[in-house]
């Protein structure tokens, strides 16, 4: 799914993210849109967004080389603005885990998240999940790779508990 950069196989995830970011005409600066925790967002003032940008450190990338997809889809109107948020969950043995949560430890049984249904929109969402705003394909891939590391740790711990 993630592919690799060594042999012309960049994978579906990086290629899809490249197309998404090439197709969005007017990506807002970070923290103007803020997730509401229910698959939605609210818009905060520019002053609040500036304060949030000062608090959060700039991302560092470990991706040194990769193939970049050059295709773009029909773009939106320039009068629209947008932001891209990602989340990454794993459902294992009827438990739901937030893999973007840095506090996720080997004691996973105590960190399971609940899946809820919004009473108004009737849409399912994972309660208290971390939604990370990303501004580029590389930033999204970096978040994905960090979550994959948490997933590997969790999988071996779960297998240990269930004696597999």
UniProtKB/TrEMBL annotation:
Its cellular-component GO annotations read: mitotic spindle; nucleus; spindle microtubule
Q: Pfam families from the xrefs?
A: Kinesin
Which residues belong to any copy of the Kinesin motor domain?
1-164
* Keywords, in A-Z order: ATP-binding, Coiled coil, Cytoplasm, Cytoskeleton, Motor protein, Nucleotide-binding, Phosphoprotein
Instruction: Output one GO BP term.
Output: mitotic spindle assembly
Organism domain of life: Eukaryota
Q: Does the keyword ATP-binding apply?
A: yes
List the molecular function annotations (GO) for this entry: ATP binding; microtubule binding; plus-end-directed microtubule motor activity
Localization of this protein: Cytoplasm, Cytoskeleton, Spindle
Q: Which family does it belong to?
A: Belongs to the TRAFAC class myosin-kinesin ATPase superfamily. Kinesin family.
Official protein name in the record = Kinesin motor domain-containing protein
What is the phylogenetic placement of the source species in the record? Answer: Eukaryota, Metazoa, Ecdysozoa, Nematoda, Chromadorea
């Amino acid at each position: 799914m993630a592919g690799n950069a060594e042999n012309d196989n960049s994978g579906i995830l990086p290629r899809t993210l490249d197309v998404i970011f090439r197709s969005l005409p007017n990506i807002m600066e970070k923290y103007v849109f803020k997730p509401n925790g229910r698959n939605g967002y609210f818009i905060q003032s520019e002053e609040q967004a500036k304060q949030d940008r000062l608090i959060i450190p700039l991302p560092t990338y470990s991706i040194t080389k990769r193939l970049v997809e050059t295709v773009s889809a029909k773009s939106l109107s320039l009068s629209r603005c947008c932001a891209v948020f990602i989340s990454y969950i794993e459902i294992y043995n009827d438990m739901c885990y937030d893999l973007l949560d840095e506090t996720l430890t080997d004691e996973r049984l105590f960190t399971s998240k609940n899946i809820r249904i919004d009473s108004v929109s009737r849409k399912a969402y994972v309660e208290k999940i971390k939604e990370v705003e990303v501004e580029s394909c590389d930033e999204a891939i970096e978040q994905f790779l960090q979550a994959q590391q948490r997933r590997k740790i969790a999988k071996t711990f779960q297998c240990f508990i269930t004696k597999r």
